[in-house]
């Protein structure tokens, strides 16, 4: 689906090309004889002072002007709105400070657009000013690669973002502000509101469930980037919002990714995307990545690749692995996941050997780390005979 700039449903200001301004001036002179005569007709449908109207048509004008006035001008001159749209050099909302230059118009709704919705639910928040400005998104991301990819996603849909203060390239911020037009289009296209992006009440827009797999997967990947943890053989998303977790499970079902949901006693819910279909998830991801490079899973994608590489290897348990594990654990305490990565084997295989060594009274749990993972180490010599 494509959205024309006049369909955004917000007051938009634009900067148009000098050649198009010349075209308008020539049409006014040819058809109406003078600007005052044209203005008398224009004010019947558009409330604009003559001096303001005259200034906006100057070839040297580099300021933003009200799109609605230009639309009225073009209609009176029988100039198509499509031609007007092709000559827009930049645009922004009326009170916005950041703007889109070299815009992509009309705006095309791609899977990246739905992925942005996921990001704004995950690590985004809506900002609102007291001066009647529209809502706009702030996205907080500590990983620079993900932060840069977020900007690329917006620019792949709308065009180059021009920030009034070039804070993005100073490498001192973890926050990115999206132009108001991003939130405005999400509100309009999906019928969303502020409540749609609050962590406790957010839901997957129903329209996404009706789209093809690329849109669904893009949304899911957005949630994995912001809220997911990639372990050695599964993906976990843990949220306080139980209904959103159930939505994500439904999304996985529609994509044929085996999953399970667990409601915890503390009110949180977990979605587990299970190992049995992670290979399909990864293959689908690579197809989507080839078409839309912005969906890159970054370091989480590398973790997934490690798992896929392990399950593609012949599953042979070599007796020597037990000795290798003992040597590793004599130097430092490690979890099953860490051992699996070091030995390039499945987590199940590493766990099997760990349990075997525990039964032989050669290793023991040394500590417990987050996500209830145990770190194992070699058992003290004094404790082996107990």
Explain briefly what this protein structure is:
The protein is an alpha+beta fold. It has helices at residues 18-32, 35-42, 50-56, 67-76, 81-86, 111-122, 144-157, 180-190, 206-209, 213-227, 242-254, 278-291, 298-312, 320-331, 336-343, 347-359, and strands at residues 2-3, 12-16, 65-66, 88-93, 99-101, 107-108, 124-127, 136-140, 160-162, 175-177, 228-230, 235-239, 259-263, 269-273, 363-369, 373-378. 46% of the residues lie in helices and 17% in strands.
Describe the structure using short key phrases.
single chain, 386 residues, alpha+beta, Endonuclease I-creI, 4 domains, five-stranded antiparallel beta sheet, four-stranded antiparallel beta sheet, 16 helices, disordered C terminus
Explain how this protein is built:
It contains 16 helices and 16 strands. Helix 6 packs across helix 7 (144-157) and helix 6 packs parallel to helix 10 (213-227). The longest helix is centred in the N-terminal third of the chain and has 15 residues, at 18-32. By secondary structure, the chain is an alpha+beta fold. The protein has four domains: 2-103, no CATH class; 104-202, Endonuclease I-creI (Roll), CATH 3.10.28; 203-308, Homing endonucleases (Endonuclease I-creI, Roll); 320-383, Arc Repressor Mutant, subunit A (Orthogonal Bundle), CATH 1.10.10.10. Mean pLDDT is 88; it is low at 381-386. Strand 7 and strand 8 (136-140) form a beta hairpin. It has helices spanning 18-32, 35-42, 50-56, 67-76, 81-86, 111-122, 144-157, 180-190, 206-209, 213-227, 242-254, 278-291, 298-312, 320-331, 336-343, 347-359, and strands spanning 2-3, 12-16, 65-66, 88-93, 99-101, 107-108, 124-127, 136-140, 160-162, 175-177, 228-230, 235-239, 259-263, 269-273, 363-369, 373-378. It has a five-stranded antiparallel β-sheet with strand order 3-2-4-5-9. The chain has a four-stranded antiparallel β-sheet with strand order 11-12-14-13. The chain starts with a strand and ends in an 8-residue tail after the last strand.
């Amino acid at each position: 689906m494509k959205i024309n700039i006049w369909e955004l449903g917000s007051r938009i200001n634009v900067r148009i090309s000098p050649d198009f301004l010349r075209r308008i001036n020539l049409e006014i002179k040819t058809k109406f004889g003078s600007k005052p005569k044209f203005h008398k007709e224009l004010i019947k449908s558009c409330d604009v002072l003559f001096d303001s109207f005259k200034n906006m048509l100057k070839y040297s004008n580099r300021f933003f002007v009200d799109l609605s006035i230009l639309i009225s001008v073009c209609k009176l001159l029988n100039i198509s709105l499509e031609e007007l749209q092709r000559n827009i050099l930049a645009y922004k909302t009326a009170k916005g400070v950041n703007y889109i230059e070299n815009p992509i118009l009309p705006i095309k709704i791609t899977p990246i657009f739905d992925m942005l919705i996921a990001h704004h639910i995950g690590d985004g928040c809506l900002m609102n000013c007291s001066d009647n400005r529209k809502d706009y998104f702030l996205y907080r991301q500590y990983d620079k690669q993900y932060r840069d990819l977020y900007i690329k996603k917006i620019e792949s849909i709308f065009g180059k973002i021009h920030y009034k203060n070039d804070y993005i390239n100073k490498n001192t911020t973890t926050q990115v502000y999206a132009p108001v037009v991003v939130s405005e289009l999400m509100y309009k296209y999906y019928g969303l509101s502020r409540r749609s992006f609050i962590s406790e009440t957010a839901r997957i827009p129903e329209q996404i469930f009706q789209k093809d797999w690329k849109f669904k997967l893009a949304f899911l990947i957005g949630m994995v980037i912001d809220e997911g943890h990639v372990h050695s053989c599964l993906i976990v998303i843990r949220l306080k919002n139980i209904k959103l977790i159930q939505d994500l499970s439904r999304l996985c079902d529609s994509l044929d990714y085996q999953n399970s949901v667990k409601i915890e006693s503390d009110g949180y819910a977990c979605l587990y995307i299970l190992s049995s279909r992670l290979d399909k998830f990864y293959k689908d991801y690579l197809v989507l990545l080839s078409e839309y490079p912005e969906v890159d899973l970054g370091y989480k994608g590398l973790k997934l690749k490690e798992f896929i590489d392990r399950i593609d290897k012949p599953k042979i348990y070599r007796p020597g692995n037990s000795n290798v594990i003992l040597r590793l654990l004599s130097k430092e305490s490690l979890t099953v996941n860490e051992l699996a990565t070091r030995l390039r084997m499945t987590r199940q295989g590493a766990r099997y050997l760990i349990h075997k060594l525990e039964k032989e009274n050669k290793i023991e749990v040394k500590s417990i780390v987050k996500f209830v993972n145990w770190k194992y180490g070699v058992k003290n010599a004094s404790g082996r005979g107990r």
